[in-house]
Amino acid sequence: MIDNKYIVNWDSIDKNTFMYGSCIEFDKGVMFENLLMPSGTVIHEWFMTSQYFSTRLVPSLPILKRGYHYKLEIKVESTPKNSVYLKIKFYRRYKSIIDSMTVTTDDFSFIYPEDAYEYSIELLSASVERFYFEYMTITEMRHSS
Prior knowledge:
Layout: E1 2-8, E2 23-26, E3 30-33, E4 42-47, H1 52-55, E5 69-79, E6 84-91, E7 97-103, E8 107-111, E9 118-125, E10 130-141
Antiparallel strand pairs: 1-10, 2-3, 3-10, 4-9, 5-8, 5-10, 6-7, 6-9
């Protein structure tokens, strides 16, 4: 049974966007091109929480429930194929990392840790030259009893 589905967009350039040598166009999604970006570079990052008065960023990820199962899906087409991936980081209350997961497929299931206070998602390069990012979805999964 599917309970809640959240759509996560990338709709602006901010301090968490890799801009050096990048060409970025926003339409219904994001067309990104950078022929010289090294592998492992964080291209963009989304957060569940933010300190608006210091960062001027609004949180872009939904609040997740501890212990619940979720499915993360990404709609992205890259050149070369499969040259972008995601990294999910789970944090305790004062930003120490509990766990992180690297996602190299278009969909991935995970359990939000019981002791997590917040999380972030990074979009990383695996020697990508260009890609079109449409959106991500985070779906709460429940099994009927």
